[in-house]
């Protein structure tokens, strides 16, 4: 676990020094005049490479330079079958490869001579936490046409030899990159010259990120805390609570010192049993399978039905129990065993007997954990088992505390019913994921919110004793605790209602369908970029005397959408940003073709990089300016391209983002006095 967390903490330091995808290629002759060019992509662990046909994200693309010596046959194919994952922020199911991928292009040889096929690849690779980088590669593939027998009908008629003008840079100027293209040409293309040596020397002091993304760290701690909370809730259910004084008294009535030792072993046995369950799930499915399950629509339907069954059981619809033969068999083993084994089987018996109450809690926790990665089931079960086992050891150490425990009674059934309502809330989250992935359109945002409003309202009525479930009697008076629980339920109900008209509901936005599924939306609180091109943005910023905020973004960037939805819409951030900056969003995955004047080719040793699209242009600018290729990446510059403060990456804290904006504006004002 610590290696994984440490890896994510170091991402800002070394992510740009490594290549997430490495390549090899081979040419296979398949007939007298045809061949397959096979590209092999080797993808680093933890990364994925988007397929050629993915939706939502940036698809990969192979571009073959035209050459009269060959022609393409059909489209580039890919193998094996890519994995799929629904991205709620993109509103689409993306397809991607992990480990290795193979791309094949069939060609026909037209001339019996030696020549090179120039191929350019452009795509996107992402870590599982959403951080992405552009992947670009150039191939010069030698073909010996003399090994083939082109058909006469395939050989083109020679044309007049012409000196076609192009913007390829010559090898004579390949010593230094900033000598290959003159400053004026860079300025015409970008508005600034990012390779100017003086500018680079000045900007170098700010080429660090002010914010580091620790999503893996946070998510694992969140699962651990959720496990502890689940264990504490399980303690006060009718299946577990009465067992505490009975079990502790059994241990301490024999010999206090031995009783404390046995109770400690009993607690550790509970932890071992539940943690083993978490490890078993991880080992059976593996990391990749768990990730696939979390986004598969049919497994999300299964999760929905599973939680629905748990909810019905908690609400009194039926009793969820394991076969009695299992419990009896474990009880007999506990009686026959001696020493540590006897205590272990006693703990196992508790696990089985309490399943009707703990089962739904464990099931919900594991379903949530699966969506957070392969370590999460282990971490979740560790938290759950610690919280469940601790009281048995604690009360063995301090038996006088047992007399202070509340008596078993109807309040425990209230706990069960409350858990039933909570299961219902979570169930519809998984149905929503399946609905979005399959484009059924049955659970749009307002429908989802209406269902949650109904659940919260009915829960409030339950706490007020207006409605009752199986086995419950009318209360003579309303307790203070039930009053406050009803208050919370109705407050949550009224909090949700504005969401029917498009209110962001940031407190529960992670569970709701995306805003674009809402049919009626009166909320227009979002920030729009002033420009999507740097040259007019610089000119306008100079005229109004404001600094520029460059937003290196991507149409397929999930984290970019999250920043725009949760940080830019913050009232303070929105107001400060719109009044003090010229915002320019540069999309590194924009496939719009550049004009011939801007479509330049840059040579770096034996590697040629041609700027073909607008996305290529901004990707090159980002790397040249800030030595980064991840999105989102925010940079504050003046009108000459000088960076004014540290870089800002993916961090959804509005206050930190606002402080960063204020720092950049202050430095801009100081430099322009």
Overall mean pLDDT stands at 75
* Helix coverage percent: 40-55%
Ends apart, CA distance between termini: 51 Å
- How many independent structural domains? 4
Nearest-angstrom radius of gyration? 31 Å
Shape: globular
- Tell me the major beta sheet: 7 strands, antiparallel
* Share of residues in strands: 15-25%
Overview of this protein structure:
This protein is an alpha+beta fold and about 675 residues long. The protein folds into four domains: about 15-155, Immunoglobulin-like, CATH 2.60.40; about 215-410, no CATH class; about 410-520, no CATH class; about 535-670, Glutaredoxin (3-Layer(aba) Sandwich). It is built from 21 helices and 16 strands. The strands form four sheets. Strands 3, 4, 6, 7, 9, 10 and 15 form a seven-stranded antiparallel sheet that branches. It has a four-stranded antiparallel sheet with strand order 1-2-8-5, with no helix packed on it. The longest helix is centred in the middle third of the chain and has 40 residues, at about 255-295. The chain is globular, with a radius of gyration of 31 Å. The model is unreliable at about 1-15, about 155-185 and about 210-215 (pLDDT under 50).
